[in-house]
Amino acid sequence: MQTIGTKSSSSDPPEPAADDRLRQARAPQRDLLPLLAGTATTIAGVGAVLALADIDSPLRAPFTLFFLLAAPTAAVALALRNLEPVGRVLASLSAAVAVILLVAQGMIAVHRWSVPGGIAAVAALSSLILLLVLVRRLRGRTVRRRVS
Predict the structure, then answer these.
(1) Residue partners of 7: CB distance under 8 A and separation at least 6
(2) Is the pTM of this model over 0.85?
């Protein structure tokens, strides 16, 4: 018995290889992390705006609390990128709680406590930590380029 092979026309797309099919199956998982990061950023930003603008909403307290925890946590997590994931999460959450407590204690000590002031101070400290991390990374890249 003889089998007759048929040639596919040049207009037919080639069959995807096994690696391509595996990569396509993992594509939704890769797209989930940026989606979650964008959602978290949006929630934190809305919480900060609701608190700073003094808007009465049932979402104000949870979103503001999320902002107060997420902003320093993200900044410290970027600074600790060489740690294992579980250690980085625990250390950055601990650092976020420490930043919040230090801001609150400092504002109470100088008799300048206010909710908008506390949110602004936490945002400023988180931005400062993030800025220092980015400057350190850029400086490291410049030094590596000169050496290479």
Answers:
(1) none
(2) no
Cβ(100)–Cβ(36) under 8 Å? no
3-state SS, residue 134 = helix
Q: How many domains does the chain have?
A: 1
Q: Is residue 16 part of a domain?
A: no
Domain of 122, in residue numbers: 21-147
CA-closest candidate to residue 65, choices 44, 37, 49 = 44
- What tens-digit pLDDT sequence spans the chain (148 residues)? 666 666 555 555 555 566 666 666 666 667 888 888 889 999 999 999 999 998 999 999 999 999 999 999 999 999 998 899 999 999 999 999 999 999 999 999 999 999 999 999 999 999 999 999 999 888 877 665 556 5
Contacts of 46 (CB under 8 A, 6+ apart): 59, 63
